[in-house]
Structure formats: C-alpha cells, structure tokens
Amino acid sequence: MVYEAYSSVCTDCRTVSRSLEPDRSAMDNPLFFEHLPVRPGKPRSTGITMVRDDGMPTAELDGLLGSYGHVLDYLKFRQFVTWYLPPDELRAKIRLCTDAQVRTFLGGTVLEAAHLHGRTEQALDTMTDYGLTAVEVSSSMVPLDTEQLAAVIGLAAQRGFEVLYEYGKKFQRTALDVDEAAHDIGRLLDAGAHRIIVERWQLDAALGPAGESDTAPRVAELAERVGLQHLVFEAETLAHQVWLIETLGPEVNLGPNIAPFHVPSKLEPFRHGIGSEVGYSLFPTLVSRTGTAVGDLFRTPAQA
Question: Per CATH, which fold does 12-298 belong to?
C-alpha cells in the first residue's frame, strides 16, 4: 500500500526521521479532513522532489512556485537553458526559486564541459555568483577517474554547495551490480557528496519498462544498503515512479528529470495514495482510521 501516511517510522529501507514539522499549506483548507496525509515541511531530508526547467518562461515559473512551490524541493536548469538563456533571466529564475525555498542547480554536463576546457573552478565561481545552492557532479559523458571526481566534489563542497553526484552512465544496458554500486556510492559520500542521483539508464536496465525485470529487487537492495535518504532516483516514466513509491514508500526521493507540472498532476498525488495508477490506496487507510464500513461510504443521507 502506498499510503501509510507520514506519521510513523517505516521499516527496512523506508526508515526515516519524522522530526520535521508538517507542511501546513493544505491544513488551512476547510475541505482538508482528518486522517488525510500531511507531508513534512521544508527543508525535507526524504520525500524530495526535483524537477527540471526545460525552458519555461520566467513568468510561468513564478506562477508554478506561487501555487506549488511547497511540494518542490529542487529545480535543475538544463544545459541549453544554462548556456543560451540571457544571464539576467537565469538570475531572475534563481531568485524566484530561492524565495520559494527551492534549491537550484545546473545539469552535471555543464561541469563536464567546463572540465574539458580546464575551467572547473571558474564555473563553480560563476555558479556561486548566480546564487545557485547545489551542484550536480557527473562523469556521464566525460570520463573522470575517482581522484578527479573527488577533487571536483571537494572544490564544490568548499564553496558551500550541496553536492549531488549522478551515478551511472548514459546509455547503460546492463543492470547495476549492488556490491559495486554500494562501494562506489560510499566513496562518493565520503568524498563530500550529499546525495547520489541514480541515473535514469541505470533504472531502465534494472527495472525494465515497469519494474517487471528479474533484476528489479536490486534497486531496493541498493536503497537498503546505502540508505534511502542518500539516494535520488531519476525516474522519468509513470511506471517507474509508481514502482519506486510502492516498493520503497512515499518518502523516496525522485528527480530531477521530471516536468514541473507533472508534480501536482501525478507525482505528489501518488505519494499520497491518490490516483488510479496507485489504486487509490489512500482510501482503505481512511476506512480503517475512521472506522467506517466500506458499505457506509456509499449510503445516502436518507439511508443513514
């Protein structure tokens, strides 16, 4: 069942701290009834949602954050936006996100390109000047060895960035080896990375189209070995998002290649057990907690 609310400590790889204050944005709504799930407020350590700006107008981003900023945790700017949007527009977008408590970062291949030009430190200094608060480090297109990656992570951490490392290669075709992945991720965390983004191609290879692959349990095993709070899964498809939420729980971290308006229409409802894709799993819990018999849900006032 997706929804066991956000009220108790989960088991196995879903163990999390419930010390955060709840998000009270919905609780002021007179249609918000008792026993409905309440998300932890920001800053969250689990249940994180990262989205990607593929080039939306600044005014559209302003509207998105005004309505749904409370359920967004990070926004990633694609390479094209980073390189070809006028700098003043990019700064304006970053300021909007900062005001909404949404952390911002650039796609990891921006730093990979900077490395090719010998300008990694200059790129990090520019990110600081722009007001970005996180940085994605990767070696998905430009091969970097362990020492080089540790050096880049260290440079970013020294500047106060939250370091997100993208684990895995693009166009990966073989399922991840859990022992190898857990070892690599442990070294990256020790080097100063805050969270590890599991590359979409890794998920595709391990899960198959809808989590039906024999190697799908490896993803859950990795989360248990490393700690769910350290991982962010780059799940781009509905099927993978549903599988991860149903398997690892609603507090699984997801993103960043998610369209922003997909969050209120699909992803956030999934976390709450709302939607046919997750079997409306919220309602059996409501029935249990309210003590209402299933048949009574469909009884008219005249029949009561």
Answer: TIM Barrel (3.20.20)
